[in-house]
Each structure stands twice: as C-alpha cells, then as structure tokens.
Amino acid sequence: MKNIKRTSLQTEVIEYIKNYIEENRLQSGDKLPSQQKLQEMIGVSRPTLREAMKVLETRGVLKAVNGKGIFVTSTGDQNMISLLNFTKEKQNVLDVLEVRRILEKEIVRLVIHRATEEELDDLGETTRLLMQLFHEGKQQNRVDHKFHNTIYRLAHNDALYQLITSLETTMVNFWEYPLDLEDPFLKSIPLHEKLYFAIREKNVKKAQSINEKLLDEVEYEISQKY
C-alpha cells in the first residue's frame, strides 16, 4: 500500500485500515500491528491515527485492549459498513438522517426509563461543559460528540448503540471536518441543553420533540451546504 497524501486524512486512514484487514484476511480476535508500526506504514501523525482508530472502535470494527494491543472485533455487520461507505451523496446522507430520526425517538424514550440518576448526572456534566464552551465561543465538537454518545449509551441496548453510533459517525465523516474545527451544526447546540432538561424531567414527548428539532437543524444545514 502507498502512503496517504490526500487531505482527508482521517477518512483515508480508516479506509487504509479496513483494506489492511481485508487484504490480510484478518478475523475477529486477530491483532493489528502496533500504533507505532501503523504510523510508519500509513505515514500519518499519531493524533490522526488515534482519531481514525476511535471511529473504527465506535463502528465495532476494532477494539483497543490496554497493555495488549488493537484487535479486530466482530466483522459480521458488513451491511452497516457498506452503508457507511456510500454516504458521500447528499440524498444518501439524508436517508441516514431519516433512520437516525426513527432510532433516536426510541432511544430518548429508553434513556428516560433506564438511565440511573448517576448516569444522568454524568450527562449533565457533559451538557454544562458543552454550553460553557458554546457561550465562550470555543471549540465544542468533541464534547458535542460525547453528549450524543452518552445518550446512546444510556439506552442500555448494545445492538442499538452499535447501530446508532455508526450512523452518527457517518454524519461526521460526510462533512469531512476534524473534531477540532468549527462545528457545522453550531446552531443546534442550545437544543442540547433543552434535550437534557427534558430527559431529566422524564418528559418523553417533550424530549422527543426537542430531539426532532435538533435533527431538523442538521437536515437544514445539509440542504443549505450541499
């Protein structure tokens, strides 16, 4: 394989690793080369490689085990990986967003019924940090991503978590912006706080309505920019 030289590094690194797995016929449980070795093979910086690995972990393709290395996990979800591969067209991304609407409506309901007070406290801390960064005009993409990921996790359904996080990651990849640059969905940030309070109040209909408005903002940005 050739070293990566195009600008969309994170996307390219993801594709490189997936191709490496396929070309070497790695199976679930097989170990990847060390991060240092992968850096040398691909020709990218450690932070870029780390971000790509996080995406693949979220998608359920890889798993990092402390002190042991990086392993291929279950590769049975090939349909989802195929779905993620065709989302460069606007209509395809809107289709993915439509699926997110369906899933997130139920996720919000599950979170309200299943999340513990301690878990909601953690979500509250993330929400407060997100709003603080927003009001200070500072970069908030990483915290924004953590907010959604936490909500998905609090539904306490592993299969649903894997599916929805893959779709959410797809939206990030579509815009091809690194997590430390300006968020294209900046206008939706205030709705995150409203969503948190509605979840905390255990008001299912209100929380679902706010989440719909949040996704409306995302759809609007996609329609305006593409």
Task: Please describe what this structure looks like.
The chain has 226 residues and is mostly helical. The chain has two domains: 9-76, Winged helix-like DNA-binding domain superfamily/Winged helix DNA-binding domain (Arc Repressor Mutant, subunit A); 79-225, Up-down Bundle (Four Helix Bundle (Hemerythrin (Met), subunit A)), CATH 1.20.120. Helix content is 68%, strand content 4%. It is built from ten helices and two strands; from the N terminus they run H-H-H-E-E-H-H-H-H-H-H-H. It has helices spanning 9-23, 35-42, 46-58, 78-85, 90-114, 117-135, 141-153, 158-175, 189-200, 204-225, and strands at 62-65, 69-72. A two-stranded antiparallel ribbon has the order 1-2. Strand 1 (62-65) and strand 2 form a beta hairpin. Helix 5 runs antiparallel to helix 8. It is globular, with a radius of gyration of 18 Å. The two termini are 32 Å apart. Mean pLDDT is 82; it is low at 1-7, 76-84 and 177-181.
Silhouette: globular
Name the helicity range: 55-70%
Give the quaternary arrangement of the chains. single chain
CATH hierarchy, class of the largest domain: Mainly Alpha
Structural class: mainly alpha
Number of strands: 2
Order of helices and strands: HHHEEHHHHHHH
Keywords: DNA-binding, Transcription, Transcription regulation
Protein name: FadR family transcriptional regulator
Domain HTH gntR-type: 7-75
